[in-house]
Design a protein that fits this description.
Layout (H helix, E strand, L loop, with lengths): L1 H27 L1 H9 L10 E2 L7 H12 L10 H5 L1 H7 L3 H6 L16 H10 E3 L6 E3 L16 H4 L5 H6 L2 H7 L13 E4 L22 H12 L2 H5 L1 E2 L7 H4 L5 H9 L6 E4 L2 E3 L3 H21 L4 E4 L21 H11 L5 E5 L6 H7 L5 E8 L24 E6 L6 H19 L3 E6 L16 H11 L7 E5 L5 H15 L14 H14 L6 H11 L14 H4 L28 H17 L10 H11 L2 E2 L2 E2 L4
Parallel strand pairs: 4-5, 4-8, 8-13, 9-10, 9-12, 10-11, 12-13
Antiparallel strand pairs: 1-6, 2-3, 6-7, 14-15
Helix pairs in contact: 1-3, 11-20, 15-16, 18-19, 18-21, 19-20, 21-22
Protein name: histone deacetylase
Keywords: Chromatin regulator, Hydrolase, Metal-binding, Nucleus, Repressor, Transcription, Transcription regulation, Zinc, Zinc-finger
EC number: 3.5.1.98
């Protein structure tokens, strides 16, 4: 009887505190609560996996749990389930950065409930650490990352790419000395490069605690901005533009209304997912609007003559976002929005060059039927096995716009400067010159850079600078560079710095040795055969290269990584490069086995699997097995089977 009275008293007291807590919660989270109330009775839009705030009762449930927590000691354990409800709230309100920086704050003293978890958690925390540069996990007994070689206390977020001795080995410390005192310059050259950046884009982050940090993280922008500041470039030599959120009317030209509403709906949830790797939190919709708005305004400023060129330091990225789908870390397609804004400002033809290691399937989908926008993409493809699987050379456009989609699909990982510059010389520039764009936009993903954990390619800052310099000859120098991917902080920082230096009018530096790999040359020839149907000026280039093939200088074996290191079938894999990613170390390449022989071997294995089951060899169908393999001349266990 006393227990029932005590529980009744606790419930009444909990109801009183619940009402008070609801009022406080509504004041603290008014915008989120209003957004939920507006959608009372509606379901979450299709394509979004919401993990928090899934219904309108989530606030009442959490409030009830917190109200009863204060009297838990008097409830004889009867309200244990309400007490536990307070723990997720503490974790959900914290950002991903806070979770990794303050793991010790998760200890709540309730050893009875967490007795089976605490020992394991302490063991993991004491033996592993995540590299701030590439996010890869390392054991506590090592002080340098096994993948990128950076020290566990690498402070790139404060000092940029000048934070460790590796920068000196790569020759980047000279950059800082070159720009010392440059903020005092006031020449016409320094005032014509605009940069778009807003700190509110840093609020877009993955809230849910996972075993591995998400590669698309706020530190990407922090590292680039710290490097630019240390070099005296921005703030300094570049001109900032004011941030603006894109309007729905501007987005509707590129995306469907359903897509726009789905992205906006995420502002009502602490955490949600469009795909397993494409997250959103309550700030993501605002960050996506800011990114698209900055790209649109930079494009308009360049077309109007207020800026000669520009760099959009934005996130979330955009080139995977299609007409109605958010995927591949992307919410709104920033490059597409910028192209439409340029056309509104007077540009008749816009060129988009996408050198992100992943194919920009979203950008291609948006413009594949348009003759006013030429889309050129250089990406790792591997016959469709590399994410997202699109972007084959045969994808040239639709509905009368054939030839206005140009795809250069690399056959393997490890592609470097020489292959990219070679493709620029023989494919990108000849087509672009004939197209004669009024504005050139670069979807500048730096995940093909040396050391990137997902791209596993070998492009250096000098290579990116050379490609940027080659594109400045188009559209009277009107060039807009938009940040896409890139997940090694040192790689993206040094590469972005090299690109902006070219935008400022500096020379790209050392010349890139243009000797393509065998796989790279083969890809270029295949693309030329496809595209010469639509661009006749390529026919002479193809004929010349074919005649020079026997004597053409080719890097035998270069450009292809081992299968284990390629990360085939996904966005890449751990361990693609060695410790020192800036040394000219080619030990990870395969010099003794060409890609042709590897593909032939794979086809033979596949053919053997498809012909007949292996158990025919020992059963009643043994004669049929020997007949098939003997007539076809296929090797079985290293020996060629033939008829007796």
């Amino acid at each position: 009887m006393e227990t029932e009275m005590l529980q009744t008293c606790c419930r009444k007291s909990g109801e009183g505190k619940n009402n008070l807590h609801k009022q406080n919660g509504q004041v603290q989270c008014q915008s989120n609560a209003d957004c939920v109330n507006e959608r009372r009775g509606n379901l979450v839009p299709a394509g979004i996996s919401a993990t928090l705030r899934d219904d309108e009762n989530c606030w009442e449930q959490k409030s009830s749990g917190m109200a009863c927590t204060d009297r838990a000691d008097n409830c004889n354990g009867a309200m244990q389930h309400d007490i536990v409800l307070e723990k997720p709230k503490q974790q959900k309100e914290m950002t991903l950065q806070d979770m990794y920086n303050h793991k010790e704050d998760y200890s709540d003293g309730d050893e009875d409930d967490d007795s089976d978890w605490e020992p394991f958690q302490k063991h993991v925390d004491s033996e592993k650490w995540f590299c701030i540069n590439c996010t890869m996990v390392n054991w506590d007994d090592v002080h340098h990352c096994d993948v990128c070689g950076e020290h566990k206390d690498f402070d790139i977020l404060s000092f940029g790419s000048f934070a460790s001795s590796l920068a000196q080995e790569a020759g980047y410390t000279q950059v800082k000395s070159d720009f010392e005192g440059s903020s005092a310059r006031n020449s016409a050259l320094d005032s014509c490069t605009a940069v778009g950046f807003d700190e509110r884009m840093l609020l877009h982050s993955e809230v849910e605690m996972k075993p591995h940090p998400h590669p698309e993280r706020p530190d990407r922008l922090r590292a680039i901005s710290a490097t630019l500041a240390a070099a005296g470039i921005f703030p300094g030599r570049c001109v900032p533009i004011p941030a603006r959120e894109i309007t729905q009317e501007e987005l509707q030209v590129v995306h469907t209304q359903e897509h726009i509403e789905a992205v906006e709906f995420t502002s009502c949830m602490l955490s949600s997912y469009f795909t397993p790797d494409t997250y959103a939190n309550e700030h993501s919709a605002c960050a996506a609007r800011l990114a698209a708005g900055l790209c649109a305004d930079l494009s308009s400023a360049i077309m109007s003559g207020h800026a000669k060129n520009g760099f959009a330091l934005v996130r979330p990225p955009g080139h995977h976002a299609g007409v109605k789908d958010a995927m591949g870390f992307c919410l709104h397609n920033n490059a597409a929005v910028a192209a439409v804004a340029a056309q509104s400002a007077g540009a008749k033809k816009v060129l988009i060059v996408d050198w992100d290691v992943h194919h920009g399937n979203g950008t291609q989908e948006i413009f594949e039927g348009s003759k006013s926008v030429l889309y050129v993409s250089l990406h790792r493809h591997e016959g469709g096995k590399f994410y997202p699987g699109t972007g084959a050379a045969a994808e040239v456009g639709i509905r009368g716009a054939e030839g206005y989609c140009v795809n250069v699909p690399w056959k393997c990982g490890g592609v470097g400067d020489s292959d990219y510059v070679f493709a620029f010389q023989h494919i990108v520039l000849p087509i672009a010159l004939e197209f004669a764009p009024d504005l050139t936009i670069i979807s500048a993903g730096f995940d093909a850079a040396r050391g990137d954990p997902l791209g596993c390619c070998d492009v250096t800052p000098a290579g990116y600078a050379q490609m940027t310099h080659m594109l400045t000859s188009l559209s009277s120098g009107k060039l807009l560079v938009i940040l896409e991917g890139g997940y090694n902080l040192r790689s993206i920082s040094t590469s972005a710095t090299a690109v902006i230096k070219v935008l400022l009018g500096e020379s790209p530096g050392c010349e890139v040795d243009v000797e393509p790999s065998k796989a790279g040359l083969q890809t270029v020839l295949e693309v030329l055969k496809v595209q010469m149907k639509f661009w006749p000026n390529l026919e002479s280039t193809l004929t010349r290269l074919q005649s020079q093939c026997p004597s053409f200088p080719v890097q035998n074996g270069k450009g292809c990584l081992k299968g284990k290191e390629q990360g085939i079938g996904g966005r890449g894999g751990k361990g693609c490069l060695g410790h020192d990613m800036y040394k000219d170390d080619q030990s990870y390449l395969v010099p003794d086995k060409s890609s042709d022989s590897v593909l032939a071997e794979k086809r033979a294995k596949k053919k053997r699997r498809l012909l007949v089951p292996i158990w025919w060899k020992w059963g009643r169908k043994k004669c049929m097995y020997n007949l098939l393999y003997g007539r076809l001349g296929i090797k079985v266990k290293g020996r060629a089977k033939s008829l007796p």
